[in-house]
């Protein structure tokens, strides 16, 4: 079997075998011209059979006669059994042979009884019979597993293979490497190698598209390009393991065919050699010193036999041992050892691993049966260290430490921690989390076990799109019961606080947020690293406008250490604290480094969170294609882990880009998904995200009434809510207020921003505050403020925002008569909008560039978008056509025209052309 497709599959299904298929085409062409041979030599499962299948199919499609024989190991003692398979389809040609050849071949094939035939006569008769068939149509003989074809049949076939010139007969064979099988056969021989990494990866993606990335990587490592292994290993895993939700076993289960391939040679070894191989299999380091300590002897000569059989390799450089194929390890563990033998081997290896606490703890976890607190504590510590490295194997160690805990309280605490990790990082099914949490119902209120159970339940609710109000009540009641003081060096307390932060972000409940900050003051010790990061993350995510400025020095100091941070969760939290202060760029390398290394469990919440931060950074920097690519990855990881935790933040980023680029369908899809999730969860976040996207669409399309109404739902004029998201809509609120004549509302909002010193958070807010103030100022002051805005150091880090300001600045300068400087600002804005494909903004900029050089009193009252709409309407376009051109709804176009008619002194569309002509004549 080939490993790439079932027998008879088209050659188009083959992956990574283009050269071999070319060789087969050459053989078929040679057969038609006068005969040819080809033999593939390759290890079991490498794909020989599927190549033979492909060749047979192609030959049959060309009208060739295809004769096939497959060697069978237990039939090797049956003389001429191979010829019997091969030649029976040609019985009609038997009577045409010379009588001596006919009788000898008939006896060999078992068609009649007689004296044992001479082998040379049988071989000659075989050649004659096939030649008779070739006179009718070309013949392709296909022989699989030549090494198991009985010797008399093999002799006859190889005799035939040496005499095919000019015969219209081809011979295609497949054989496992071995001494003497094809020696002096005269066949053209090719070695069939395992698939290269790229082809193996493509095969897995084609056949098992839902494999989680780390599981696919594990299978690629184990299979080592063997197609049969690539196809038969995934079905042996549970659905949860294939999706990356459950950690796969240390040694992968083998199918019957894989067992037959990889276990057969091992079973022939002496018992002592198999025992040593089991120690090697259970210690992936291949350390010869550890093996000798575990075996209790320095004599490992018994392994030489395994090396001779090609099972094991012992490197000359350092004496380390590795299996020639990784699946040999699985065969040793799963096929030739009992569970008791495995536990004994693990115990010996644990005794031999005192120099490596993590490895010792893992061996103890596998060796132990009875509860033992000392061992349970060692395993728990190992699990904690693994989780700190971003390795999800830590959760299995926590569960194992719980199973070995003599104390019910310790057992509950450890199970609770495991449940939290499973729920928080979306590593397990909801059923498994619920099962673990169910065992914590009798936990003492306020205990670590109760806190873990509450936070696990909350994360499960959030990730599955449940009612977050219920989640808040569960966590809050448990957390307050654990007071009055809190130690966030204790994982149960620390995770509970971070869970509350996430609930605050989801619900945007100001009361819950205020209570969070009250409890935050009870955290002890206040200056410990865990407490500092918690406070920094909580403030910058939940209240950056009111509390963030005073923590900027502490944030900058923490950013300076991010490259030395080894915990990927802490890296993501430091970077998360940088979202609203616009300092993600300083964290980018640390975030990307974490994504580049696929830890076990990396494609879970931590990776989704890191990608969310990087996507927002890419959006701010004007790298919108990268932002969309990252959001697509987040969506894929969410589907794989069945976690909806980042659906809303992803929708916000995607929706903002859709609004800016005029993708009305994208905006509609985004807002519909946010509305649907808000109905399920009752979250405030989805409602605010929806309004932000639609407000941005209104600004982009010139529907300033809509933009103002939606922006003030998120952030009332003159008020900055205690959520960072309010900063995202501040400038939309100010601009829409000015455009709709609500100057006082704009002034109030600018005053709030300045009084809270939000402009100190990041250059971006200084740029937007100056630009907003310019909109409500007199001409001279406006010019000064606009110039200060576009000259702000760091403004180029937010190119889209800077282009918006340049657009407004250019419009102001042109209205003031400074057309040259105004055009320069507009040209710069247009270049950015064009690069970003921000079509509505580009149209607005081009309309400003096309305005009359000397505006009249009437035309000066028209905004650039109003002027463009009027011009299109005067040309005869309908509201629907204008909307399609400018990415506006027909209703919005109608509203604009209704507003403009009085300005131009007309009452119908028919008067628009004359009104515009009059304006042009008065230029």
Structure, explained:
There is one protein chain. The protein has 923 residues and is mainly alpha-helical. Among the domains are: 181 residues, Rossmann fold; 52 residues; 87 residues, Arc Repressor Mutant, subunit A (Orthogonal Bundle); 65 residues, Winged helix-like DNA-binding domain superfamily/Winged helix DNA-binding domain (Arc Repressor Mutant, subunit A). The chain has 48 helices and 9 strands. Helix 13 crosses helix 16, helix 20 packs antiparallel against helix 21 and helix 37 packs parallel to helix 39. The longest helix is centred in the C-terminal third of the chain and has 18 residues. The chain starts with 17 loop residues before the first helix and ends with a helix.
Structure in a nutshell:
The chain is built from 48 helices and nine strands. The protein is mostly helical. The strands form three sheets. A five-stranded parallel β-sheet has the order 2-3-4-1-5, sandwiched between helices. A two-stranded antiparallel ribbon has the order 6-7.
Key structural traits:
Arc Repressor Mutant, subunit A, 9 strands, 923 residues, flat, two-stranded antiparallel ribbon, disordered N terminus, five-stranded parallel β-sheet, single chain, Rossmann fold, mainly alpha
CATH architecture of the domain at 11-191: 3-Layer(aba) Sandwich
Strand residues, percent: under 5%
* CATH class term of the domain at 11-191: Alpha Beta
The tally of beta strands, per DSSP, is 9
Give the biggest beta sheet: 5 strands, parallel
């Amino acid at each position: 079997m080939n490993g790439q497709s079932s027998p008879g599959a088209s050659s188009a299904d083959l992956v990574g075998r283009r050269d071999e298929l070319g060789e087969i085409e050459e053989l078929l062409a040679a057969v038609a011209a006068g005969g040819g041979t080809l033999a593939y030599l390759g290890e079991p499962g490498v794909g020989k059979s599927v190549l033979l299948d492909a060749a047979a199919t192609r030959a049959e499609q060309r009208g060739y006669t295809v004769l096939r024989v497959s060697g069978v190991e237990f039939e090797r003692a049956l003389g001429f059994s191979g010829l019997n398979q091969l030649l029976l389809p040609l019985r009609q040609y038997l009577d045409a042979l010379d009588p001596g050849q006919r009788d000898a071949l008939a006896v060999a094939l078992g068609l009649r009884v007689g004296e044992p035939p001479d082998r040379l006569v049988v071989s000659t008769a075989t050649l004659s019979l096939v030649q008779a068939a070739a006179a009718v149509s070309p013949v392709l003989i296909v022989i699989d597993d030549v090494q198991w074809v009985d010797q008399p049949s093999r002799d006859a076939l190889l005799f035939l293979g040496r005499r095919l010139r000019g015969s219209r007969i081809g011979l295609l064979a497949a054989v496992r490497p071995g001494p003497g099988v094809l020696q002096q056969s005269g066949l053209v021989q090719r070695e069939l190698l395992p698939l290269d990494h790229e082809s193996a990866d493509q095969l897995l993606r084609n056949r098992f598209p839902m494999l989680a990335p780390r599981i696919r990587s594990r299978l690629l490592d184990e299979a080592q390009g063997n197609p049969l292994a690539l196809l038969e290993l995934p079905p042996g895993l549970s659905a949860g393991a294939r999706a990356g939700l459950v950690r796969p076993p240390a040694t992968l289960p083998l199918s019957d065919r894989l067992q037959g391939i990889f276990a057969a040679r091992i079973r022939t070894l002496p018992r002592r050699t198999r025992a040593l191989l089991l120690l090697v299999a259970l210690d992936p380091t291949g350390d010869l010193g550890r093996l000798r300590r575990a075996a209790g002897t320095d004599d490992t000569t018994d392994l030489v036999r395994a090396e001779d059989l090609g099972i094991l390799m012992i490197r000359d450089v350092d004496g380390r041992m590795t299996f020639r194929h990784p699946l040999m390890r699985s065969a040793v563990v799963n096929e030739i050892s009992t569970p008791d033998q495995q536990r004994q081997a693990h115990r010996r290896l644990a005794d031999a691993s005192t120099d490596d606490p993590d490895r010792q703890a893992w061996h103890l976890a596998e060796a132990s049966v009875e509860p033992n607190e000392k061992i349970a504590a060692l395993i728990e510590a190992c699990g904690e260290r693994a989780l700190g490295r971003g390795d999800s194997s830590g959760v299995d160690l926590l569960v194992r430490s719980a199973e070995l805990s003599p104390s019910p309280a310790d057992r509950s605490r450890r199970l609770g921690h495991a449940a939290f990790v499973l729920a928080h990082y979306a590593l397990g099914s909801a059923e498994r989390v619920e099962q673990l949490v169910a065992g914590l119902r009798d936990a003492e209120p306020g205990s670590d076990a109760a806190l873990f159970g509450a936070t696990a339940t909350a994360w499960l609710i959030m990730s599955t799109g449940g009612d977050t109000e219920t989640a808040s009540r569960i966590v809050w009641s448990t957390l307050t019961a654990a007071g009055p003081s809190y130690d966030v060096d204790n994982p149960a307390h620390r995770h509970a606080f971070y869970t509350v932060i996430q609930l605050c972000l989801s619900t945007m409940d100001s009361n819950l947020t205020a209570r969070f900050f009250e409890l935050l003051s009870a955290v002890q010790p206040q200056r410990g690293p865990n407490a500092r990061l918690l406070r920094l993350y909580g403030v910058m995510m939940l209240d950056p406008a009111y509390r963030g400025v005073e923590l900027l020095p502490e944030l900058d100091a923490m950013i300076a250490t991010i490259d030395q941070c080894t915990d990927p969760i802490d890296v993501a939290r430091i970077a998360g604290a940088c979202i609203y202060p616009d300092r993600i760029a300083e964290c980018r390398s640390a975030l990307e480094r974490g994504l580049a290394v696929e830890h076990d469990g990396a494609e879970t919440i931590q990776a989704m969170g890191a990608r969310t931060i990087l996507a927002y950074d890419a959006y701010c920097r004007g790298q919108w294609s990268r932002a969309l690519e990252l959001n697509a990855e987040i969506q894929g990881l969410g589907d794989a882990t069945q976690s909806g935790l980042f659906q809303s933040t992803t929708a916000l980023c995607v929706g903002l880009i859709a609004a800016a680029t005029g993708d009305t369908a994208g905006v509609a899809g985004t807002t519909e998904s946010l509305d649907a999730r808000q109905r399920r969860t009752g979250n405030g976040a989805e409602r605010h995200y929806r309004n932000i996207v639609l407000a941005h669409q209104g600004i982009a399309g010139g529907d300033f009434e809509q933009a103002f109404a939606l922006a003030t739902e998120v952030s009332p004029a003159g008020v900055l809510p205690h959520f960072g998201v309010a900063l995202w809509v501040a400038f939309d609120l100010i601009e829409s207020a000015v455009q709709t004549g609500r100057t006082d509302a704009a002034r109030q909002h600018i005053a709030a921003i300045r009084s809270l010193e939000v402009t100190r958070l990041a250059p971006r807010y200084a740029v937007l505050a100056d630009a907003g103030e310019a909109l409500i100022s007199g001409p001279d002051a406006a010019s000064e403020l606009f110039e200060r805005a576009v000259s702000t150091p760091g403004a180029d880090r937010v190119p889209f925002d800077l282009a918006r300001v340049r657009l407004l600045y250019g419009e102001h300068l042109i209205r003031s008569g400074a057309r040259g400087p105004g055009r320069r600002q507009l040209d710069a804005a247009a270049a950015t909008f064009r690069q970003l494909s921000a079509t509505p903004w580009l149209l607005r900029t081009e309309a400003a560039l096309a305005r009359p050089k000397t505006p009249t009193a009437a035309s000066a009252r028209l905004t650039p978008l109003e002027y463009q709409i009027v011009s299109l309407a005067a040309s005869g376009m309908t509201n629907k056509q204008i909307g399609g051109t400018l990415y506006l709804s027909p209703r919005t176009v109608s509203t604009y025209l209704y507003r403009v008619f009085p300005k131009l002194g007309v009452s119908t569309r028919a008067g628009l052309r004359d009104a515009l002509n009059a304006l042009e004549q008065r230029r």
